[in-house]
Specification:
The complex is a heterodimer. Chain A is built from no helices and 11 strands. Chain A is mostly beta strands. In chain B, strands 2, 4, 5, 9, 10 and 11 form a 6-stranded mixed beta sheet that branches. A 5-stranded antiparallel beta sheet of chain B has the order 1-3-8-7-6, with no helix packed on it. The chains are: A mainly beta, B mainly beta.
């Protein structure tokens, strides 16, 4: 099973809402990533978890809060977002951090009104 | 800081042609380079991964090469098909202050015309 799943597929939220994105993999991978992709742009790295510990935070605003409850699950909690945060949010995983094939999920299309 | 550039930004070819996509990066201290395809509004599909110690990788009609010293990689697609139409992205895994980061290239949008 080389699948990374993400839920929900689409999310529309207001600027005062609190929502969460979920990412799951059952490949035994120990590194998981969140990326943000704006239209017609490449993905930009947001966070990296390695062995369930946050190892990289690319100066992401605090309205994005990642969480890794266990080695298979990665969440991204959203609060007080801005319309410019509307994007495709992609999750990926690798066996270890950085040296292996990245497997991507299908993404969550987020729209902030 | 690692910067990754892809040329051309867009490419349109007739079906059956062989084609080459280019990826260049500024810092040669990389761990690996990965090529992906992305269909509109979708996630990324991994095509090939080249470790820093390797020169090339092949999968079916795809061949990717890596010249780390010059900061270049190419993706060769043989006998292109309409189903190859997508955006192709290269991504470089590299060391930044002891941490491994990933930077994506700007992408090449490929259209294969039947």
């Amino acid at each position: 099973d080389t699948e990374v799943t993400q839920t929900p597929k689409h999310l529309v939220m207001g600027m005062t809402n609190k929502k969460s994105l979920k990412c799951e993999q059952h490949m035994g991978h120990r590194a998981m990533y969140w990326y943000k992709q704006k239209a017609k742009k490449p993905p930009e790295l947001m966070f990296v978890y390695s062995y369930e510990k946050l190892s990289i935070n690319e100066s992401v605003p605090s309205r994005f809060s990642p969480e890794c409850p266990n080695s298979s699950l990665l969440n991204l909690h959203l609060h007080a977002l801005q319309p410019e945060d509307s994007a495709l949010y992609l999750c990926a995983s690798t066996i270890g951090q950085g040296t292996d094939t990245q497997y991507f999920g299908p993404g969550t299309r987020l729209t902030v009104l | 800081k690692q910067e990754v550039t892809q040329i051309p930004a867009a490419l349109s070819v007739p079906e059956g042609e062989n084609l080459v996509l280019n990826c260049s990066f500024t810092d040669s201290a990389i761990y690996n380079l990965q090529w992906f395809r992305q269909d509109p509004g979708k996630g990324l599909t991994s095509l090939l991964l080249i470790q820093s110690s390797q020169r090339e990788q092949t999968s079916g009609r795809l061949n990717a090469s890596l010249d780390k010293s010059s900061g270049r990689s190419t993706l060769y697609i043989a006998a292109s098909q309409p189903g190859d139409s997508a955006t192709y992205l290269c991504a470089v895994s590299w060391n930044s202050g002891g941490y491994q980061k990933v930077t994506f290239g700007t992408g090449t949008k490929l259209q294969v015309i039947p």
